[in-house]
């Protein structure tokens, strides 16, 4: 089997590792990820958001199935371009990926089909309407309609404390995009639920909790994600019923999209909030989460190649996952997220990582004269996997300590202290506080 993967981050390193375990891997990357290149039989470097460049690399390679991974490649129609040259694909078309790149489409689809998990929202085109909607909804989340790399959302209480602050951000977005999504602010605990979809059926993966805020105790700016953990079939603060609601919402979305002849094939990832009144949708993504992919792929027992083939065929295979805990921590350059220091060398003690049974997944790094250097984004993800969350966290921590250089990470991810805070918070939410429109 020959599998084509498009993308070059830590998430794609984890996907590449899984594919190369049982198939020949060909990759197309925007920048050379030295770890992915090592796993690939052949790799190409080009603009992975340009359909013409990607198809020029991919043609005549005798590919059995292809998977375009990052959101921007999907939004730029890379799957469609590969389909056009006769390559079978297991990622969504541009039109199906719209569920992520157009939040107006996602919210309208949910509203028109009366799907569960909706939040109050409004699209506005001018400041006057923005003010009116904010006054009506009270606490709000302000969102640009398109892709923002996880950094465009601003929320009452976190990023602004009064209507002036909210209007100032609304103005910024309106000047740029001419429209803005305003949602009611909901309260609860967030979890990520990823599913495989063949356009009709879905099968879910273990739930994961990501940590978006840059600093310990969830302070600082939102980032692409600083780390994540999973604990088997449930997370410590959620119940079976929450997972079932999340799965039902994703199944309803897949059905609604199929009904309007916009079938979603690939990985769909629901970013949910467990609230007092049930599970609500924060965002729907058309891909694996980063870092969440690293958590779940470490537990997947099936061949990922077979999963991809079954998606492409429209005959989804049932995935099985081992029931262990995982912790992922991202090492990021000093100064991240505002002023990251790039081009700084990292000294990596591979033996120490191996000895602790942990793993490293390369993200934004490059290799020069056999030395790994940082770029200006998240550098390396570390993974600990074990029978308990405590052990998994310790392993990820050992791996972090095995990398020396101008990088740092959130030490609190996966620790008992932080997880207990989530449990207590969820208990308070379920007991009655929390504004989720109920
Ligand atoms: P996103 O970029 O959509 O992942 O949003 C970033 C963060 O903003 C999420 O992780 C949530 O913590 C928060 N957020 C987004 N939408 C809402 C909402 N409607 N209510 C409360 N918080 C939200
Ligand atoms: N975990 C955040 C994202 O992948 O968007």
Bound ligands, each once: adenosine monophosphate, glycine
Strand content: 25-35%
Q: Could you tell me the number of beta strands?
A: 24
Q: Can you give the helix content as a percent range? A: 25-40%
Q: Please, how many helices?
A: 15
For this structure, the quaternary state is single chain
What structural class do helix, strand and pairing data support?
A: alpha+beta
What form results from the Cα inertia axes? globular
End-to-end CA span = 51 Å
Runs with pLDDT <50, length 5+? none
CA radius of gyration is 21 Å
Considering the chains and any ligands shown, give keywords for the structure.
single chain; 438 residues; alpha+beta; six-stranded antiparallel beta sheet; four-stranded parallel beta sheet; 15 helices; 24 strands; 34% helix; binds adenosine monophosphate; binds glycine
Kindly describe this structure.
The protein is an alpha+beta fold and 438 residues long. It is built from 15 helices and 24 strands. The protein has helices spanning 10-20, 34-39, 51-58, 71-75, 78-84, 98-101, 103-112, 127-137, 163-177, 240-259, 292-297, 304-313, 350-355, 389-401, 416-431; strands spanning 2-6, 24-29, 42-45, 65-68, 121-124, 140-143, 154-155, 180-184, 189-198, 202-204, 209-210, 213-215, 219-222, 227-231, 265-275, 278-285, 325-333, 345-348, 359-362, 365-368, 371-374, 380-386, 403-404, 407-408. Strands 11, 14, 17, 19, 22 and 24 form a six-stranded antiparallel sheet that branches. A hairpin with a 3-residue loop joins strand 12 and strand 13. It is globular, with a radius of gyration of 21 Å. The model has no long low-confidence stretch (mean pLDDT 96). Glycine (GLY) binds next to loops. Glycine binds at residues 150, 210, 225, 285, 289-290, 292.
């Amino acid at each position: 089997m020959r599998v084509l993967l498009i993308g070059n981050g830590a998430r794609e390193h984890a996907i590449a590792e899984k594919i190369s375990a049982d198939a020949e891997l060909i990759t197309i990357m925007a920048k050379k990820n030295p770890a992915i290149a090592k796993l690939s039989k052949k790799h190409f470097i080009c603009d992975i958001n340009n359909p013409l460049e990607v198809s020029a690399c991919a043609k005549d390679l005798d590919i059995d199935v292809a998977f375009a991974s990052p959101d921007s490649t999907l939004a730029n129609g890379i799957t469609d371009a590969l389909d056009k040259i006769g390559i079978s694909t297991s990622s969504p078309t541009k039109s199906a990926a719209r569920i992520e790149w157009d939040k107006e489409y996602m919210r309208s689809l949910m509203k028109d089909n009366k799907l569960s998990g909706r939040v109050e929202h409004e699209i506005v085109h001018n400041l006057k309407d923005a003010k009116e909607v904010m006054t009506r909804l009270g606490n709000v989340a302000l969102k640009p309609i398109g892709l923002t790399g996880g950094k465009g959302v601003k929320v009452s209480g976190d990023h602004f404390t009064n209507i002036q602050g909210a209007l100032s951000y609304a103005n910024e977005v309106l000047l740029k995009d001419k429209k803005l999504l305003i949602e009611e602010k909901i309260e609860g605990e967030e979890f990520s639920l990823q599913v495989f979809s063949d356009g009709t059926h879905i099968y879910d993966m273990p739930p994961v909790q990501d940590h978006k805020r840059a600093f310990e105790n969830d302070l600082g700016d939102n980032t692409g994600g600083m780390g994540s953990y999973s604990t088997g079939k449930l997370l410590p603060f959620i119940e079976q019923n929450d997972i079932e609601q999340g799965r039902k919402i994703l199944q309803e979305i897949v059905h609604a999209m199929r009904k309007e002849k916009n079938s979603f094939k690939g990985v769909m990832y629901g970013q949910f909030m467990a609230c007092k009144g049930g599970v609500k949708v924060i965002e729907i993504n058309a891909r694996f989460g980063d870092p969440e992919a690293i958590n779940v792929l470490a537990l997947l027992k099936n061949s990922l190649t077979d999963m991809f083939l079954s998606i492409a065929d429209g005959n989804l295979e049932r995935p099985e996952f081992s029931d262990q805990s995982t912790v992922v921590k991202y090492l990021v350059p000093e100064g991240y997220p505002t002023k990251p220091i790039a081009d700084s060398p990292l000294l990596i003690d591979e033996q120490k990582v191996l000895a602790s049974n942990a793993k490293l997944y390369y993200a934004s790094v490059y290799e020069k004269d056999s030395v790994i250097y940082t770029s200006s984004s998240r550098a390396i993800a570390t993974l600990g996997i074990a029978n308990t969350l405590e052990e998994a966290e310790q392993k990820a921590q050992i791996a972090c300590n095995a990398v020396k250089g101008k990088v740092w990470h959130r030490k609190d991810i996966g620790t008992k202290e932080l997880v207990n805070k989530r449990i207590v918070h969820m208990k308070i939410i379920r007991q009655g506080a929390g504004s989720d429109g109920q």
